[in-house]
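Honest question from a wet-lab person: if I give you the sequences of every part of a complex, can you actually get the arrangement of the whole thing, not just the pieces? Trying it with mine:
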Amino acid sequence: MNILIVHAHPELKSFTSALKSEAVEVLRGLGHQVEISDLYASDFVATASASDFADRTNPEYLVYALEQRNAVARHTLSADIEREIERVKQCDLLILTFPLFWFSMPAILKGWIDRVFVSGVFYGGRRIYDQGGMVGKKALVCTTLGGREHMVTEGGIHGDLKGMLRPLLQGTLGYAGFEVLEPFFAYHVPYVEQSARQKMLEDWKALLLNIDSRATLAMPSLADYDETLAPRAKLVG
Amino acid sequence: MNILIVHAHPELKSFTSALKSEAVEVLRGLGHQVEISDLYASDFVATASASDFADRTNPEYLVYALEQRNAVARHTLSADIEREIERVKQCDLLILTFPLFWFSMPAILKGWIDRVFVSGVFYGGRRIYDQGGMVGKKALVCTTLGGREHMVTEGGIHGDLKGMLRPLLQGTLGYAGFEVLEPFFAYHVPYVEQSARQKMLEDWKALLLNIDSRATLAMPSLADYDETLAPRAKLVG
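Yes, you can. This is the full assembly:
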């Protein structure tokens, strides 16, 4: 497989970075090609803006998704975005490794999505979910957090973490057509002993060694929705 | 009231910007003080990084939240962050106006939260929700999107939009102690006629004129959780 790891942690020696390095080692050991987009190391631009387009269709009024679509067709996207799009296109499996910031991605990773998941390639009109641009590829989210598991479950104080990540898991990765694997969460990281972190690294390694059997998240199927994306009436009985 | 509007849209003439301008006019007309943080106009730095701290406690290993806490105490946060913290501290009502990017905030606004909602001021330890640093202030989210309402409701193709925004509504604003008002959503904006946009502006104006009676979202109360933030057993009968 071709694998792309997109990594977003500001500290090189962090546990999140250790999870990323472990993935590189294990996956290369299995014979896979592994590319890494280390967003902090490359000082990736987080903010989607007019300057992402060398040659705008409408210089008077910015509709970001429309300019994406045109810039893809005319190859006038900024070079950093072009490079990342190519990396995603080449991969069979996309892995995102990041610490949870405010129950979602650090802004630098959100910006990678805002800028790289361009209209016309990743999605467009009804080309979403099982009709999305990335159909045939898998995606895996690996997140570290300070909270304990009981705080981020259904009925816990903050509610279910997978639900909190729905904008990413379903609204972004699933939407673009990726088959989304069950995410990996490392809880309470800054507060646990080294042995507990070692155990989490081993769990992560075991997951990667058995990635083919990792469960996937259910996503909508376009066949169940009409041309306005309203649910089709179901025949009963 | 002192009101802070944090605005994140790359196009000055966008409908989202019109909603922001309408809010400024209506709220000033009511006699309120209104400050605006226009993140695109001020080229706000989105990425939380080591360079946010002039004088690190631990230059060898970055724990962002710990450095936030120390920098607040020593007044060594970068000037843009200090300014935004002061603006939030001064306000009674915080309004966020932004277009939905991938079912959440544009990265520039996520970065405003990552960098400005500092540990030790907005939250800390068990100082969250009704014990959070921003208790006594209100927050209102105003979001524009391309999708139609039926696509982002319970049972719709993408699921409930308020649920998608839970990382912001509960996990950020509620977590920090804000009383979170029912959000305002403007649907299908790029595709509707001018008259429909005018109607949405009027709905927004009516909301603002009656902001005191806007419903609020339920949030956890710390009294219901023990010292590990696990739910306390409830006495029944």
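Two things worth pointing out. Helices of chain B lie at 15-29, 64-74, 79-90, 107-116, 161-164, 166-174, 194-209. The longest helix of chain B spans residues 194-209.
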